[in-house]
Structure formats: structure tokens, C-alpha cells
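As the next step, I selected for study a record pairing a protein sequence with its C-alpha cells, which the following lines show:
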Amino acid sequence: MDTASEYIRRRRRPPVINIVPLVDVLTVLLFFFLVTMQFKQLSALNITVPKIETAGENEIREQIVVALSPEGQIYLNDRKVDKGAFESAIKLAGELTPDLPVLLIADEEVPLKHVTAVMDICRSHQMNEIRLQSR
């Protein structure tokens, strides 16, 4: 009997965990989540920007972000400001860095008069590089 138990002990293989299928499944899951993930820019305003078919890509660099709500309220870098404070901030920015771009984000329901008023304030203070945000 000693030889039989010795034979069984020798035949028994040590337990092995096969990692290859686990890596395959994790790779597929990672790929799935990366493809289905939506990257959205968080903002304080609930703005639906209009779609422009011929819009170019926005380069991310230092810029002034001006947002207009549907009611015509002005937000300068995510802070609500009145028209006088906005004009003084743009005047100061135009004196310090006149070539700094301005990104104008306006809801598609904003009247054109509010958009043109903001653009006019920017251009009157040497802030001539104005871009419109679209989707």
C-alpha cells in the first residue's frame, strides 16, 4: 500500500491558475468601457450649443471663456457678472494680452443681440480673436 499511496502522491499536479483567459476578459472589458465612455465638459450652465457643420477643432490653450445663458446673463470663466464688470474685465485683459483668444459659448436660444453685444465689447478692447463654441 505504501507504493500505491506514493504513486498517487507523485501523480498529483500542483494547482495552477491560468491567467491568460482572465487577461483576455479584462482587456475586452477595458476596451468596451473606453469606447462607450462619454467625455463631457462640466459647466455651471445648462447650455445647448448650436451645431455647426463646418466648425474646426478647438485647440485647448489659455483663453477667456464667455458664456451666455438663454436669458442673456453673462458668465466670465464660469462666474456670473453684469455687463459693466464684464466690460471692465475685458478692457483689462485687452490691455495686458490683446492677442488672448475669447471662446464664446452661447445657448442656441440666445438672441443674436446678446451675442453681438459681447463680441462688440471684446473687439472694442483689442480682443479680436473670438471663437464660437459649437457641437
The first strand starts at residue 64 and ends at 68.
